[in-house]
Amino acid sequence: LTILGIESSCDDTAAAIVRIGPDGTQILSSVVAGQTDLHADFGGVVPEIAARAHAERVDICVEDALAQADIALAGVDAIAVTAGPGLIGGVLAGVMCAKGLALATGKPLIGVNHLAGHALTPRLTDDLAFPYLLLLVSGGHCQFLLAEGPDRFRRLGGTIDDAPGEAFDKTAKLLGLPQPGGPAVERAARDGDPRRFPLPRPLLDRAGCDMSFSGLKTALLRARDAVVAEKGGITVQDRADLCAGFQAAVVDILTEKSRRALAEYLTLAPAQPAFAVAGGVAANGPIRAALQGLAKSAGATFHAPPLALCTDNAAMIAFAGAEALQAGHTSGLDLAARPRWPLDSTAAPLLGAGK
Ligand code: ATP
Ligand code: FE
């Protein structure tokens, strides 16, 4: 089974070819064209600029993905595309491209939930069976999910305000670091003292696994302003210490809430307890290390995709499309783009939407 995946929901245009065979799953190619430079002057992703860039680049990404995989379009068995959630203009650019290819080739079209793409990625790279506990932690989302099947996710808890990726990006912006903020903050934090600026860990002692990150951002802003008021500016060391303090708080929140989510998951007595983490923030070294340690102490296996498969890519969309196809789902050519599409929704099928 050879699947073409297309992704264009935020600021990365991506295409990939994934093959599922008797001897496992292979990523034959994975092309990602980022847009960081296009949005750099605006301090965030500008939806209109993103949509235009996706429309201009998506065909080229598909051609590159096919060329790198050394196959022709006719050699593809199905076309999977992100149908939401995300910035509607970008999603539409990908969906229209996929519909054109499906129409031209007569191959099945599969509309994929972007979050299902992230959530299933640990199965793309590891031998991981359902049900597993998943922490989906990205630029726009943060939730604990019980992954019961390729289109069955039960939410155990999650952020009540911001997503950690957003908090990393805002922290970078406040401290004059480049976007995307996550990698920049992680790098700066390596030389920092996490104890110099003790930032809050909201909801840490509250039962359940809901989280909050907005107070952390405000506290960081105050800490920065206090340094600026005292010295007239911030030094490289101040910045490193602020980043380290921020990252340590995120690690503590995610670890403590994961502990609670794991305890809840383990009451289900899964045959092979497994804890997976996915989404852009799962690329963070200290977060991965802390969660790995936690899984080990709880007697669960730990699964974190390689860094390039944590952030947005189309291999995860191709793989989620393959899972949908194998479950018998495809979409019609009337597939609609959905700006909002919760992963734990029971109202609409998560994969193969539109039919
Ligand atoms: P969503 O998937 O929720 O719709 P998105 O697709 O924009 O949002 P992803 O691409 O999954 O988000 O993740 C991007 C986010 O991950 C950004 O906020 C970025 O700062 C963050 N991120 C990337 N690398 C790291 C890192 N090393 N440490 C922390 N955060 C990171
Ligand atoms: Fe994403």
UniProtKB/TrEMBL annotation:
Gcp-like domain sequence ranges: 26-319
Any Gene Ontology biological process: tRNA threonylcarbamoyladenosine modification
Places the protein is found: Cytoplasm
Database matches in Pfam families: TsaD (PF00814)
Record's keyword terms, sorted: Acyltransferase, Cytoplasm, Iron, Metal-binding, Transferase, tRNA processing
Cofactor: Fe(2+)
InterPro entries membership: ATPase_NBD (IPR043129), Gcp-like_dom (IPR000905), KAE1/TsaD (IPR017861), TsaD (IPR022450)
Binding site residues for substrate: 136-140, 169, 182, 186, 284
Cofactor binding mode and count: Binds 1 Fe(2+) ion per subunit.
SUPFAM superfamilies the UniProt entry points to: Actin-like ATPase domain
Binding site for Fe cation: 114, 118, 312
EC number: 2.3.1.234
Domain of life: Bacteria
One GO CC term on file: cytoplasm
Catalysed conversion reaction: L-threonylcarbamoyladenylate + adenosine(37) in tRNA = N(6)-L-threonylcarbamoyladenosine(37) in tRNA + AMP + H(+)
GO molecular function, one term: iron ion binding
NCBIfam families, per database record: gcp_kae1, T6A_TsaD_YgjD
Function: Required for the formation of a threonylcarbamoyl group on adenosine at position 37 (t(6)A37) in tRNAs that read codons beginning with adenine. Is involved in the transfer of the threonylcarbamoyl moiety of threonylcarbamoyl-AMP (TC-AMP) to the N6 group of A37, together with TsaE and TsaB. TsaD likely plays a direct catalytic role in this reaction.
UniProt family annotation: Belongs to the KAE1 / TsaD family.
Listed HAMAP family: TsaD
Protein name (database record): tRNA N6-adenosine threonylcarbamoyltransferase
Upper lineage: Bacteria, Pseudomonadati, Pseudomonadota, Alphaproteobacteria, Rhodobacterales
